[in-house]
Amino acid sequence: MEERDEPILSIRGLRKSFGVKEVLKGVDLEIYKGQIIGYIGPNGAGKSTTVKIILGLEEGYAGQVQLFGKDISTQSAAYKKRIGYVPEMADLYDNLTAEEYLTFIGELYGLEAEAAGEKAGKLVELFGLTEVYHSRIASYSKGMKQKILIISSLLHNPDIFFFDEPINGLDANSVMVFKELLAQLAAQGKTIFYSSHIMDVVEKISNRIILLHNGLIVADGSFEELKNTNSEGTLEEIFNQLTGFNEHKETAQKIVSAVQEV
Ligand SMILES: Nc1ncnc2c1ncn2[C@@H]1O[C@H](COP(=O)(O)OP(=O)(O)OP(=O)(O)O)[C@@H](O)[C@H]1O
């Protein structure tokens, strides 16, 4: 068993407002090495905002965020080299080839150009992209671009990963590889923070699920634990229950009526 005394990520009383709108209203979290956290919540709940604060991309918050045992507001930016990040939407440098882009990213993370190129080449092959390695990213399909983002997050062998809808656009076989990759990375002691709306995937891959709703954590536990404390069966149903939503049929009917009007 891993030593679990020291959390790798610790968040206390995190609050964040945009104008008069308070998005995070006091989030408390302790995350340990080797955990796969499914971070879920309705649209606009504040999931990306939480991740951006941890990554140092969003300032002006109240509360404390410690990563790798130190407050992120006082430690040097070097801590970012221990983070792998797949954002939900990314501007890839479309005019570059994957080789150019990945070598560049590897260098940003402190790898030597040659080592970065070699590692990128190996990962590109394992992700089945060798044929297009020297083509411009602009010519890639959606799933191929997503694989490049995933490779970018892995290149520098980080200790913690933040994935935001990482399997967007991946085909079924690639999803299987990715899910297995998460399990094996976690078994190596890597920590994974996985934000997604695909409930059946979150249910299967996470060993801890955290539900953010109206700026607060309203559920935190393994899927089994959530099932025991809530009457419903699947994670989708637990999500509906905890966010107080049961109007999908009525809402769909109203949309159909609105579409058919005039
Ligand atoms: N830069 C910003 N300026 C103003 N409001 C913002 C900004 N960033 C986020 N917000 C607001 O904060 C709230 C939370 O946004 P956030 O992107 O964190 O939600 P989310 O849980 O990731 O949602 P989704 O599931 O839709 O991706 C939303 O109401 C959003 O409009």
UniProtKB/TrEMBL annotation:
Signal peptide range in chain numbering: none
CDD domains: ABC_DR_subfamily_A (cd03230)
Domain of life: Bacteria
The UniProt record lists the keyword Cell membrane: no
InterPro entries named among the record's database cross-references: AAA+_ATPase, ABC_transporter-like_ATP-bd, ABC_transporter-like_CS, P-loop_NTPase
UniProt organism field: Rossellomorea oryzaecorticis
Domain ABC transporter: 9-239
Pfam hit, one: ABC_tran
Assigned keywords, A-Z: ATP-binding, Nucleotide-binding
Phylogenetic lineage: Bacteria, Bacillati, Bacillota, Bacilli, Bacillales
Single GO molecular function: ATP binding
UniProt name for this protein: ABC transporter ATP-binding protein
